[in-house]
Specification:
Blueprint (H helix, E strand, L loop, with lengths): L6 E5 L2 H4 L8 E6 L13 E3 L43 E3 L9 H18 E11 L32 H6 L10 H11 L3 E9 L16 E8 L13 E2 L10 H7 L5 E2 L4 E3 L15 H11 L5 E4 L6 H8 L3 E6 L2 H15 L7
Parallel strand pairs: 1-12, 2-5, 2-11, 6-10, 11-12
Antiparallel strand pairs: 3-4, 5-7, 6-7, 8-9
Length: about 350
């Protein structure tokens, strides 16, 4: 590991922070934005009302459950007031992405961020976008709600309950898979990005789901997107051991023709990586092993890797471990500090919040 590499984590709204980065200064972007309707990341400021109010719906709240839902360990559901607190009348001011009333609003807000990412990404750069899906659930429906558990065990089946009229207005039926990843991918396509590949993150040990009318979900998407049809991609850096290695009796020339990778093969588009919990964070943290192929194939040593939704700093750890520079952007100061601490503990590189 080259400790000469640099790292910084900037705190604030990434739509503003990105404007401070020079044009075409980043080689690859690896990120996992907040999923739509999953949880509140605690970045809101409440204006007016009662400063001691929790701004949570209080029904069904217990000592072990502060969200107002008996079957939710965390998440937002309809328990956190999005605009105006019905308990005290306070008005919510928030910059976080993920609490939009409809998936269409979410897609637009998210893709606006990637418009600015386009500017800072080099012409031969690559964007790796990990994004999950959720289900529509209408609060006024008499049918049983569908449920989905994320990698960290969070129930999210009622994450979109806040505005059933808004959901219906965009054609979403109760219990229907929203299709968030592909909605985002197609919108990015329409804004000029090349959708080069959909990588399947297959989870060998997915969380169980309390559903009886569909299969347990055990995958997420990672979209590989570029600015141009030609871009930097180091296939040698991520090649896999071939299942049919070169036979020892074959001549070097014959073996090379049968297997030009000399016992290895081109990496395939289904990546089997088990989710791993991180005890210091209550939100999902994607595994280091999931990020390594993105960093290794999408950048060279001493290149700069960007994560505009830095979270706990996993992308930074991988980038710095493999001799790249890192820039992380994070809205929540507590999470930003967590990422700084993790990067320091994992790589030995000291950095401060900016």
């Amino acid at each position: 590991m080259d400790n000469a590499n640099t790292a910084k984590v900037l705190v604030g709204d990434n739509r503003e922070l990105l404007k401070s980065l020079p044009d075409k200064s980043v080689q690859t972007v690896v990120t996992s934005p907040p999923y739509w309707g999953l949880r509140d990341y605690g970045t809101a400021t409440w204006m007016g009302g009662d400063p001691d109010c929790s701004h949570y719906r209080q029904t069904k709240v217990t000592d072990s459950n502060t969200t107002g839902h008996t079957r939710h360990t965390s998440g937002i559901g309809d328990s956190i007031y999005k605009d105006i607190c019905k308990l005290c009348g306070a008005t919510r001011k928030d910059s976080q992405i993920g609490l939009e009333s409809t998936p269409l609003d979410y897609v637009q807000e998210l893709c606006d961020v990637f418009d600015e990412v386009w500017r800072v990404l080099k012409d031969d750069g690559v964007l790796w976008l990990n994004i999950g899906d959720t289900y529509s659930s209408h609060k006024d429906s008499k049918a049983a709600p569908d449920t989905l558990r994320t990698g960290d065990g969070t129930f999210v089946e009622r994450a979109s309950n806040r505005n059933p009229k808004a959901l219906k207005s965009v054609g979403l039926k109760h219990k229907e898979l929203v299709g968030i990843p592909w909605r985002v991918a197609f919108e990015l396509q329409s804004r000029g990005w090349y959708l080069r590949q959909d990588i399947i993150w297959a989870k060998p040990n997915p969380m169980p789901e309390s559903v009886t009318d569909r299969c347990t979900k055990s995958h997420e998407y990672i979209f590989m997107m570029t600015k141009n049809s030609r871009y930097f991609f180091d296939k040698e850096g991520i090649k896999e051991v071939a299942s049919t290695p070169v036979k020892k009796k074959a001549s070097t020339e014959e073996g090379a023709k049968k297997n030009p990778y000399n016992g290895f093969r081109n990496k395939r588009d289904v990546w089997f990586v088990s989710p791993r919990p991180f005890k210091d964070a209550h939100f999902a943290v994607y595994p280091l092993e999931l990020i390594e192929p993105c960093v290794l194939s999408g950048s060279r040593k001493d290149d700069t890797v960007l994560d505009p939704f830095s979270g706990s700093g996993t992308t930074g750890i991988v980038a710095l471990t493999h001799g790249r520079n890192y820039i992380g952007l994070e809205l929540n100061p507590d999470y930003a500090q967590l990422s700084v601490d993790r990067i320091r503990d994992s790589t030995g590189i000291e950095l401060k919040l900016e």
